[in-house]
Specification:
The protein is mainly β and 348 residues long. 1% of the residues lie in helices and 46% in strands. It has two domains: 2-211, TolB, C-terminal domain (Neuraminidase, 6 Propeller); 216-345, S-adenosyl-L-methionine-dependent methyltransferases.
Length: 348
């Protein structure tokens, strides 16, 4: 999982053991986290002081590095305590308000915030589109049902409040089981509101938002010219546990022979720091080795100059980050073209 703390940390979390790895520490105020329909991680940050007044802004979190980038500059979206994705192009969020918390909709194209209505509760800290519908977690009442149209919240299990102080809710995409927690991870039944015994998360972090990681890929660096232009290197279609990873590079000479490189590092190869400038070694122009060479597969470009490599993904590679790059023999300076690298992490 990926989690964020109010103190600004972005953590990678093993949901089975509770072990954590700190990816980055950024601006404070990360009070919630959501994955958009197009697989982007969105959170919040806080600026200002108690004396001058606080402002709250949306940021996008890089799931590989934990780095954050402002989405709409310093647009103040209000004190958001929870976020969830229901429809493409927008987020639903809980905003701290008076006399009760509000359900708002955030347009991801413009940053415009629209108030949908009051919830009737004052301690909502988590929001999730579960298999049972839109649900929230209140610090006192526990599991709530939320109307996505009006924002009105109801407590379907008034006799069950759940553990105190829980501040995130997340649904595992493979099993559709829903979890709540803070420095812990509890399974919660959306049918009864009852929570399981907790899994302790290493360091008891003040988690305000958590998302299960899905399969992700990201380009690394720039390519150098192929026979028909700059090659574009991408993953094709979905990939994950039990599926195939299909990668494809284009703009090569028809029928060109190439090498599919698999590596487990983007920082070092054979004791040398990456990327390695290949131009002095091979006579190429602007080419870089961007991934460690831990395995190779030969491949051929088709008649259109597209090179496709398919790799079955074993369960052992789920959530393991690795790297791929193509090197192709063709009529360019140095006799070789090199694509960008790709960071790859299969999910469920």
């Amino acid at each position: 999982m990926i989690g964020v703390t109010f103190q600004g940390q972005v953590l990678r979390i093993d949901s089975a053991t509770g072990a954590t790895t700190t990816l980055a520490t950024g601006q404070i105020g990360k009070n919630c986290l959501a994955t958009t329909v197009d697989n982007r991680l969105i959170s919040t940050i806080r600026t200002g002081t108690l004396l001058t007044g606080f402002q709250y802004h949306l940021v996008e979190i890089n799931p590989f590095t934990g780095a954050e980038a402002l989405l709409f500059g310093t647009t103040d979206v209000g004190d958001l305590r929870a976020m969830a994705t229901v429809l493409p192009g927008s987020l639903l969020a809980i905003r701290n308000g008076t006399p009760s918390d509000q359900l708002v909709r955030i347009d991801l194209a413009s940053g415009v915030v629209t108030v949908l209505g009051p919830t009737g509760f004052t301690g909502i800290q988590a929001l999730e589109a579960t298999g049972a519908g839109l649900r929230a977690w209140d610090l006192t009442a526990g599991l709530l049902v939320i109307s996505g149209q009006s924002g009105a919240a109801t407590d379907p299990f008034p006799g069950i409040g759940g553990p105190a102080g829980l501040q995130y809710m997340v649904t595992e995409p493979g099993t559709f089981e829903t979890y709540v927690g803070n420095g812990t991870l509890h399974r919660v039944s959306t049918q009864t509101g009852v929570t399981s015994a907790p899994v302790a998360i290493q360091g008891n972090p003040d988690l305000r938002g958590v998302e299960f990681t899905t399969s992700r890929s990201q380009r690394l660096g720039d390519p150098c010219p192929a026979a028909q232009g700059l090659p574009v290197f991408v993953t094709v279609g979905p990939f994950g546990n039990g599926q195939n990873l299909v990668v494809q590079s284009d703009h090569h000479a028809p029928g060109a022979l190439g090498v599919h490189i698999l590596g487990f590092s983007e920082t070092q190869h054979a004791g040398q720091p990456l990327p390695i400038n290949l131009d002095p070694l091979l006579g190429t122009t602007g080419c870089r080795l961007r991934v460690s060479i831990d395995g190779t597969v030969l491949a051929l470009a088709d008649n259109a100059g597209i090179m496709t490599v398919t790799t079955p993904l074993s369960p052992a590679l789920t959530f393991v980050q690795f790297y791929v790059q193509h090197a192709v023999f063709e009529a360019v300076p140095g006799g070789m073209s090199w694509t960008t690298g790709l960071r790859v992490r299969p999910g469920l």
